[in-house]
Amino acid sequence: MDIHVLQQVVHKTRDARRKQTLPKLSLAERDTLIKKYHPDFREHAYRTIRFGPNAGDKTVVELAALLEGMSQVPDDLDLTPSYVTDVLVVGGGGAGCAAALHAHAAGAKVILATKLRLGDSNSVMAQGGMQISVAPEDSPVTHFLDTLKGGLMHNDHQLLKVMVEEGPAIADWLIKLGVLFDRDQDGNLHVKKGGGSSKPRLLTCSDYTGLEIMRVLKDEVLNQKIQLLEFCAAVELLSDDQGRCTGAVFKDLDNGRFVVVSAKAVILATGGIGRLHIQGFPTSNHFGATGDGLCLAYRMGAKLVHIDTFQYHPSGAVYPEQLIGALVTEGIRSEGGHLVNAKGDRFVNELDTRDVVSSSIIRECEEGRGIRTMAGRVGVWLDTPLLDVEHGPGTVQKHFPAMVRQFERFGIDISKDPVLIYPTLHYQNGGVKIDTNAETGIANLFVAGEASGGLHGRNRLMGNSLLDLMVFGKRSGLTAAARAQSM
Ligand code: MEZ
């Protein structure tokens, strides 16, 4: 059936739904829903249907094979360094740039190496905003509690405390560097409410917050003349005879040669694992998100935490084919966008945490209330035109210019028509265990950002990733610089 015909049910029932409010789930109902339908649980129905009864083990085996894989570095590689530095940062996204800038500002000689180009990362694709408690009616304590609830109470309290408390200073730092956060008519920072949050706390730059932050951070890395090694993939960490990290081996993707960098401290800021399509899901992640830092740190003996839990963002595009898995920002739901099944009914509180919303979308599809495209993909509607009602005609364009443009390229006008969505693999909730200075327990090895774990518990609260990158990027950079200077 043509996608435009499929959309009619949404159009027909739109008026009735506008008046509809949904009761919140009780804790017991919520638990049952997540256990039954969320992909992270072994008994999850979707996995059984897609991969058969042993599917739970499939992911475990895939991850283990990745972590225990053979080294790409030949035993007889000449380890004479091509570069020598105080601090080596691996990764050119938000955490890597923040780490490099702070280590440099603290007086360390820094090299930033990245597999693709500086800035190519998930950070650049972050749309919905950054949670920081800057509003007068908000506080770091409320931010802490919202995050803990979202993380199913598994969050590392110390990491979380540091993140929420340092948020406001991070906002000041980014503003000083030139980030143009949205402001109200009086010039105050404008905060929006995000899913799973009890207060408006999202700082945004329209629907391209990550892009704007990365524009500024990239410029600053270049302005500070921090040495860059682009198109260099980290393939092994180096250590001395006491197990201390002493640098890394890279593969230069231009010529296939190995490059050895000797460093007094190494910061891994390599991001997540989405491009490995855990459990066969599409992903919102960039092409470089292949779990590199996770493997490198694991092979050095670092501990991993919550590595059995991944976040499936509720709204990944299902149609058109070229956008499968692409992020449809949660910001649309924060502004009143409804989720609607094939009967035209809403079925979940759209502003609940991501695990609950994703589970309920999967439930609708598994129980036959999804919408099937001609290509056989299934999803539910995210009814975006409700935005018009709240803000007046044409404002979808103003509020979500990046999203509107992304769909316009394929002849879809999201200011009129709903978008077909299904959960997409979005975020690695767990990762390498770190302490509040991003240290791993392996001397002189630091991990910051999505490659690390503990902070977000078993389910990251939306909008907390950008802050995580900045806070632990900074802490890793400052501690690594101090360590290098003391050696
Ligand atoms: O934190 C995120 O992942 C986020 C805000 C994404 C989005 O929906 O825009």
TrEMBL record:
<feature type="domain" description="FAD-dependent oxidoreductase 2 FAD-binding">
    <location>
        <begin position="86"/>
        <end position="466"/>
    </location>
</feature>
<keyword id="KW-0285">Flavoprotein</keyword>
<dbReference type="Pfam" id="PF00890">
    <property type="entry name" value="FAD_binding_2"/>
</dbReference>
<dbReference type="InterPro" id="IPR027477">
    <property type="entry name" value="Succ_DH/fumarate_Rdtase_cat_sf"/>
</dbReference>
<protein>
    <submittedName>
        <fullName>Succinate dehydrogenase/fumarate reductase, flavoprotein subunit or L-aspartate oxidase</fullName>
    </submittedName>
</protein>
<keyword id="KW-0560">Oxidoreductase</keyword>
<dbReference type="InterPro" id="IPR036188">
    <property type="entry name" value="FAD/NAD-bd_sf"/>
</dbReference>
<dbReference type="InterPro" id="IPR003953">
    <property type="entry name" value="FAD-dep_OxRdtase_2_FAD-bd"/>
</dbReference>
<dbReference type="InterPro" id="IPR030664">
    <property type="entry name" value="SdhA/FrdA/AprA"/>
</dbReference>
<feature type="active site" description="Proton acceptor">
    <location>
        <position position="354"/>
    </location>
</feature>
<dbReference type="GO" id="GO:0016491">
    <property type="term" value="F:oxidoreductase activity"/>
</dbReference>
